[in-house]
């Protein structure tokens, strides 16, 4: 599939609201489960990436922030979400878990994802350091073990494998593995 000729939009993030659930659900399932863009996992996992209930729970959870990059035309949001990222602050562990990171396939490769990830990292670092903890904060995330190109992307961003390996969840909320032995690998970055 060829990428449309799009210029890179200005990235504006805001905290997601319950009215965004349908658009976020569409974006996350498209980016992870449809065979479009370079970040999809369609060859590894079939079915859904997430549910509306899971997104609602993230939006409503204290110290769990879901940021949305809304499409804006003529100064107004259209209702479409072009990117998102979640930051789960675990202050007692001086850790923030980053997940639900997605950029619409038409914008991939334009630097939008780098900007969204940088904003989430900055937010998490400031939030954790605001708790007067003298130790460095850790940012963590997980990726599928069979995604070497994604691992390379995060390694270029300063993340390293931390030795954690978990079996792919088989709760029905994240799709069904197409391969046996699919694992999630833990990554971390100290800020």
Automatic annotation (TrEMBL):
<feature type="domain" description="N-acetyltransferase">
    <location>
        <begin position="11"/>
        <end position="188"/>
    </location>
</feature>
<dbReference type="Pfam" id="PF00583">
    <property type="entry name" value="Acetyltransf_1"/>
</dbReference>
<dbReference type="InterPro" id="IPR016181">
    <property type="entry name" value="Acyl_CoA_acyltransferase"/>
</dbReference>
<protein>
    <submittedName>
        <fullName>Acetyltransferase (GNAT) family protein</fullName>
    </submittedName>
</protein>
<keyword id="KW-0808">Transferase</keyword>
<dbReference type="InterPro" id="IPR050832">
    <property type="entry name" value="Bact_Acetyltransf"/>
</dbReference>
<dbReference type="GO" id="GO:0016747">
    <property type="term" value="F:acyltransferase activity, transferring groups other than amino-acyl groups"/>
</dbReference>
<dbReference type="InterPro" id="IPR000182">
    <property type="entry name" value="GNAT_dom"/>
</dbReference>
<keyword id="KW-0012">Acyltransferase</keyword>
